[in-house]
Amino acid sequence: MKTRSLVFSMGFNGYQRIYARNIETQRAYCARHGMDYEFLDRPFFTPLLMECCWLKVPLILAALDEGWPWVVYIDCDVEVRADCPDLHSLERPGKHLYMATGYSGRLNSGVIIVKNSPEVRALFQRILDGAQKTLPPEDNVGWGENGHIIHFAKNSPLLEIIPPQWNNNHDPALADYLRHYSAGPMRPLYAPRPIEKAWALLGKAYLKASKWRSAPASDKFFDNLAALQATATRGTGAFGAAMRDGGVRLAAE
């Protein structure tokens, strides 16, 4: 039987091994607070390369469509601290999207907390449909889905900006709940073990050797994203029929 909340993360191209310790903190947090947890790591390597981070958007949509009251996405390079409170304590009237800002001062999509509603589902559908939209410079982060989430969500009345303790990617001294070792000031604080260093080197070699780039602007981007989601969610029912049918759902469909 489902709980009221689905928390999920994902890791490909070696990230699933490099940040295995963080993933276990996420799993332990969900066990403490009675939440369902899914970690997606297939295929091990994906030719979507860094753009595989777009997968979180159709997965959030699918989980919302499946009827989860709360859906939470956490990057695999995020450590959940042992004293992290129940995330439902963040709930505010009329708010359905909870995100913190990162060291750039803009929304950071490494932690996305969503309370289900028709309005928030429509918001994520706009983000997905707009994947090929050219962003203004103030929203553009150069790659991935973060800039599109900034662009479509920053002025939404559904958004509640939460304290940085819930996604800290900028202040090593902060007494945080979710410590995000993303590229920037926090990355050097994650001390990889020898085996994790080896996986990091392997992942970099794969990224460097790949001659295929599937940017959102490419003709096959949505097809490639659909193929990734079909493989990643095989064997789990958490994301419902939208995943089992194997297609990224666009509004036009």
Task: Kindly describe this structure.
The strands form 2 sheets. The protein has a 6-stranded mixed β-sheet, with helices on both faces. A two-stranded antiparallel sheet has the order 4-8. The chain is globular and about 50 Å long. The protein has 8 helices and 8 strands; from the N terminus they run E-H-H-E-H-E-E-E-E-H-H-E-E-H-H-H. Helix 3 runs antiparallel to helix 4. It has a single domain (5-244), classed as Spore Coat Polysaccharide Biosynthesis Protein SpsA, Chain A (Alpha-Beta Complex), CATH 3.90.550. With 253 residues, the protein is α/β, with parallel strands linked by helices. The longest helix is centred in the last third of the chain and has 16 residues, at 194-209. The protein starts with a strand and ends in a 9-residue tail after the last helix.
Which short descriptors sum up this protein?
single chain; about 250 residues; alpha/beta; Spore Coat Polysaccharide Biosynthesis Protein SpsA, Chain A; six-stranded mixed sheet; two-stranded antiparallel ribbon; 8 helices
Spell out the blueprint of helices and strands.
Blueprint: E1 5-10, H1 15-18, H2 20-33, E2 36-40, H3 56-65, E3 70-74, E4 78-80, E5 97-99, E6 111-115, H4 118-129, H5 146-153, E7 159-161, E8 178-180, H6 194-209, H7 221-232, H8 241-244
Parallel strand pairs: 1-2, 1-3, 5-7
Antiparallel strand pairs: 3-6, 4-8, 5-6
Helix pairs in contact: 3-4, 4-5
